[in-house]
Structure formats: structure tokens, C-alpha cells
Design brief:
By secondary structure, this protein is mainly alpha-helical. Helix content is 69%, strand content 0%. Helix 3 packs across helix 6 and helix 8 packs parallel to helix 19.
Length: 490
Amino acid sequence: MLFNSLQFLIFFPIVTLVYFLIPQKVRWLWLLAASYYFYMCWNPQYALLIATSTVVTFCSGLFIDRGKTVFWRKIIVGISFTINLAILFYFKYFYFTLDNINAVRHMLHMSTLVPKFDVILPVGISFYTFQALSYTVDVYRKEIPPEKNILKYALFVSFFPQLVAGPIERSKNLLTQVNETHSFNYERARSGLLMMLWGFFMKLVIADRAAILVNSVYNNVQNYSGALLAAATVGFAVQIYCDFASYSTIACGAARVLGFNLMNNFEQPYFSKTIAEFWRNWHISLSSWFKDYLYIPLGGNRCGNFRKYFNIMIVFLVSGLWHGASWHYVVWGAVHGIYQVIGGLTKNMRRLTCELVGIDRTRPHYIWFQRLFTFVLVCFSWIFFRAENMSQSIEIIRKIFTDFRPWSLYDGGLVSMGLDLANTSVLLAAIMLLFGVSFCEYKKCPVLGAVESWHLIARWTLYLLLLFAVLIFGVYGPGFANSQFIYFQF
């Protein structure tokens, strides 16, 4: 069930209405049933996988709590990780592994292995697997007590607003809220609905419109100049941010209406001055997951610079593989890892250089240069993420550097990228609005929060304008009704 579907627009109000009408003591059961229904709308068989992950990690929490020795507790953690990651590997990386084995066999002039069955990637498996595994580690570290009610724990794993594309919640936050009393609150519900409306604007007006432009270019790389390919890559930077951030915004808004608080997954990442800052602000739930459950256990920055940079590379290679079972995702992760390593190694040199030439690093023009440079680096890495394979990535980069032709941007080339002049104008206007809202958020002047203090007439005028903008300028209807979120494939 997609957030941007008529089915969800019927489902969510019914779930919310029943939730606040039934007795408090059974509300969590209603949410559990609604969450499994929500997930089973894609494929009822998917419920077996999420139930398996739930049972394994729930039992591991109980066994860890009863463990008499550290060794025994580590064994249980290892078993939990092995089972869950084996399921994830089978459904997500089976064909990737088989393709690489066949590539080696081809070089050795051996026959190709052909599977006798199809493996379908379940929606959101990477997200709920990591969420469930974090619970196992949190219990092992004694940061939370093990949950004794398997159904309440099942709600934590399957909570429908953030189930299929995050944020990847921690048991210390979401699981503890399952036992809290949630009464209807008009102010909270209004705030949550405004968040959802803003999320729909980002998805339907910006992301899905930018997708038309990006797909037109990336599906026909040979027909476009390097300048237009670069423009499409910037368009993809806008698309993927609005697509993914919109899901998280809608998820947080829906949860808020129900009385739950989810973690913020984005903090204006494109205003970052360094790549390290970008990753502190982009997909925060995943970045912090890798930091807490992979980077720090590997030794973090406690074992010297060489080990620190080695750990960084491991984290980003794994992050790339988490995003997709293909080498171009791994390269995307490696590129960001290299950015971080180079940034760390040159940090002192850059500071001394600025001091020697008299550059004030606190001046606005220098800060904006840092932001622009970081954005360019991020956009360059997005080429590997968006391309179909490594060959296409290399071809795009080659054309950008050898066939740039900047005049193609203003001699009708932009209109040839899939959007007519009217839609291009709508997209640019919407991006400008997004930039303004994001900049206010960056300056700690949250627009959505400020709206709640406006006069009733002004507030409802904004609500209606935003609603009409989604209805009039949103990309939906025939041919677009099933425009799912990008991160569903991960």
C-alpha cells in the first residue's frame, strides 16, 4: 500500500478513527492488525518473513536476558544476526551472488548456473531487519530490558507508518511508546496532518515531476550532452531527497496523529559544508545505525588513524551494498568513504592553507563555497547510485567531462528532457519553495512549527493553498498512480 494512493487515503482515517474509539488497552492490538494488513497489501506471503524476523529477535532477547555468561550472550546475538542476515541475503543478494559466480565461471569457460526458482525481493526487508537486529544488540548491551509480550514487540517491528522505508527506529524510542497512553490531541493531530501534507507536496509535486526529467535523460544517455546529463544528475539529487524525505515526513506525521513520535530522518543535508556533515544529516536513522552497530564495534576512531579510516571504508562499502545488490551501489558507497578519508587526511592542511592565504573560514562566502563544493561531490556520487550499471555510470561521467556543451542548456535542450515549459516552471518554483523552507529549518526557524501559531484564517489559508497545490500540480493519475517511493526497492 503506497502512501500516495487512494487506498491509503481510505485506510489511514479508518485506522485512526477506530484507534481512538476503542479502549486504550486494546489499541496496540488494533495497530498490530492494521500494520500487518498494510504490509500484506503488497504480498500476503511477506508477512511470514517479518513474522520470522520478529520471533527470532524476540526469543533472542529473552535468551540473552537469561544468559549466565557473556560468552553465552554473544552466542545468542550471533545466532540472531546469522538467521536474520541469512534471510536478507537470500532474498536480496541471491541473484547478485549468482551473477558474480557466473561471471567467474564464464572467464573459466564453465557453464552458466541457472536457478530453477524465482526470488522476489520483499518490500522493506532491509529496514525491518535492521530495526529488529538493533533490538537484539540493545538488549545485549542492557540498554533496554527485553520485551515480554511478543505481540507488542511485533508492533514495534511492523509499525506501519515507518515499516517499509524508515526511519529505522530504535527500541529505546518506539518500543517504549507502545505501552504509553495515547489520547486524541487536536494540536498534535493538526501538526501531524500538516507534516503529511508537506510530505505529499514533496513527493507528488517535486519528486515525481523531477523523476520524469531524470528518467528521460538517464534512459537515453546517448542522446544528451554532458551538460544535460549534469543537469539531470542535479535533478536526481532533488528527486531522491524529496522522494525519500517525503516518505519519512509522511511517516512521522502519520505516527504523530496516532500519538507516536518517530525520529527525524533528515536535517537539510544539502546545506552541509562537508561530506561528514552530509551523512550526519542524510538518512540519519541508517547513518546512526551503522555508527552504533558497526563502526563503533569495529573500533571506531579509538585505534589510530589507519584503523579509523579502514573502519570508515568498511561502513560505507556495507552501506552501499545495503542500498542495492549491484556493484554500482557498492562503488557509490566507496566514493563516499573515499570522500571521508580524504577529508580527514587533508583537514589540517586545508586549515593551514586558509590561514596562510588569509581566508576567513567564518565568512559567509567561504561557507557557501563549502556547501556548493559538497553538493557537487554528492551529485557526482549520485551518478553511480542512479545509473543502471557501472558501464552507464562511466559513460555519463565521460560525456560530462568530454562532451559538456553548456549551450545545450539554453538552446532548447532543457525542454527536450521530458518536461514542457509549464512543467519545468512548476518544478523550479516548487524547488525554490522547498529551498526557502529548508533554509528556514536550517536556521532553526521551523516553518511548519511556526504555522501552528498563526491566526486561524492565515493558517487555514496555507492549508488550502498547499492542498490545492498538491491536487493541481501533483503528478498522479493514469500512468502515475503506482509511482512508488525509490527506497522501497531497498
